Amino acid sequence: MRRKQLSLTLREVSEHTKLSVGFLSLVERNLASPSLSSLVNIAAALDVGVNYFLSPPEGTGLVSCKADREYFSVEGSPVRYARVTKEFPGSQFQGVIVVIPAGYEAEQNQHDGEDLAYVIRGNCWIKVGEETYRLEAGDTIHYQATIPHSYGNDYDKDCTLLSLNTMPLFGLKK
């Protein structure tokens, strides 16, 4: 296990990721699955790229065609992601389509940069700080991602949204 190779305690990883020790323990024991942004924070704390944990589709070129789009998930999570932005030198943000199943609730997260979500289909909620915002198709939310935030879907149908953020999701570290 990478954390133990680096002689890091769960508390040290928690301090770096802003995720609770209890949640990190559950993730290590495969009893919980982190969101993609939380997994990126965990990877950074362990000095690896997110590709260490999963194999998202390549993000090269300039166009992301719907017909070629591949969905992926963090192991054990029912949330599905599809890359919609490509990587090029100097790019400032990354985007994914996120399919949030009915009844799902993500862990609280925070990281550098900004997040923007645009609801394509369905309904969901996003909590930023102490305020919960209920969103429906066509709504957007844009916030400073250093504020603790989480999301979920307590409706009876899946929610699909476009998530754009300035936090590098798909680094080159292996």
Write up what this structure looks like.
The chain is of the alpha+beta class and 174 residues long. Helices cover 17% and strands 28% of the residues. The chain has helices spanning 2-5, 10-17, 21-28, 36-45, and strands at 71-72, 80-83, 94-100, 114-121, 123-128, 131-136, 140-144, 149-152, 159-165. The strands form 2 sheets. It has a 6-stranded antiparallel sheet, with no helix packed on it. It has a 3-stranded antiparallel sheet with strand order 6-5-8, with no helix packed on it. A hairpin with a 7-residue loop joins strand 1 and strand 2 (80-83).
Which descriptors apply to this entry?
six-stranded antiparallel sheet; three-stranded antiparallel sheet; alpha+beta; 174 residues
Query: Helical proportion?
Result: 10-25%
The tally of beta strands, per DSSP, is: 9
The rough form would be described as globular
Kindly name the structural category.
alpha+beta
N-C termini distance = 15 Å
Strand order of the largest sheet: 1-2-3-9-4-7
Strand content: 25-35%
User: Runs with pLDDT <50, length 5+?
Assistant: none
Average pLDDT rating: 88
What is the tally of helical segments? Answer: 4
The helix/strand series, from N terminus to C terminus, equals: HHHHEEEEEEEEE
